[in-house]
Amino acid sequence: MDWSEIRIHTTNEAVEPISNILHEKGASGVVIEDPIDLVKERETLFGEVYELDPAEYPEEGVYIKTYLPVNSFLDKKVDEIKRAINNLQLYDIDLGKNQVTLREINEEDWATAWKKYYKPVKISEKITIMPTWEEYEPGSSDEVIIELDPGMAFGTGTHPTTVLSIQAIEQYINKNDIAIDVGCGSGVLSIAAVLLGAKEVHALDLDGVAVKSTQINTKLNQIEDRVMAKQNDLLDQVDMQADVIISNILAEIIVRFVSDTWNNLKPNGFFITSGIIHAKKQMVTDHLEQAGFRIVQVDEMEDWVSIVAKKIEKKSGA
To answer: Could you tell me where in the chain the CATH 3.40.50.150 domains are found?
Structure first.
């Protein structure tokens, strides 16, 4: 089978929403080529992953690449992808050059394309994300390994929004906590929560493909009995009490379910949010505080922001 490589020249701000669009249209994974990676200082433990070719990177903005099978539906699917990306402008998302190009490649090239981008990466004090085909020995007894296969879901778990989310989960998840992951995608945040001590995680996503990806990846990590993945629109019709709620999606979507988050959190529970560009930080903060949350931590990485808010019990009237 031949495959079509779809390359989108856009901005870092648009990476997460475009990745979600590609995922929803059936993409098996995405590759992000950001010129910042060419100059970023990194640990040398996994040095081979950073032997990057500058010719493959744009001078400005980022490339997002994905692969779709060449068939009679390809043209229609590409048109749908273009329309969905253009619609992101309704959310004031800067699309930059917004150029979409296609290139056909054979199956052998497609099968190996992922591996040059995807090596074990330590993304927090305890968490290392590892592709299934790599051999890796933990550096310490408390290191936690998450196995992922990028052919099963989009992304490799190393985008700044994911890194910020996992670092916050590491700080605020306690043993035997119950958590909800809203917009679970590949399931990496649900997996991190369980491996860091959560008793169970309810992983929710509107996209059935994401739910399936989460189920596959939880089996890879042998925790499928502790992650309940199901199709759901945000927290609509959800009625439970969680210790932690996690969501790594667009800021515009986060503010839509702040009140539902409040209702589904235990007193003193935490709401971990990411996927927020710096320009939208105040908007999310304002919505959280208006709902009664106390902002307890704000972290930034490149152009991205994560916010941790705490549900403070309201005192009864005098």
So the answer is: 121-311
CATH assignment of 3-113? Answer: 3.30.70.120
Nearest-angstrom CA–CA distance, 35 and 217: 29
Q: What is the share, in percent, of the chain residues with pLDDT greater than 70?
A: 84
Please provide residue 224's backbone torsions phi and psi, each rounded to the nearest 5 degrees.
Answer: -60, -20
Measured CA to CA, the distance from residue 96 to residue 28 in angstroms comes to: 24
DSSP assigned state of 124: S
Going through 242-314 in order, the beta strands assigned E by DSSP cover: 242-248, 265-277, 293-301, 304-311
Predicted TM-score (pTM) of this structure: 0.72
SS3 86: helix
Give the pLDDT confidence of 62-81 residue by residue, as tens digits: 999 888 878 888 899 999 99
| Residues of each domain in the chain carrying CATH 3.30.70.120 | 3-113
- Give the count of alpha carbons within 13 A of 24, CB side only: 16
Top-level class of domain 121-311: alpha beta
- Under 8 Å between Cβ of 78 and 102: yes
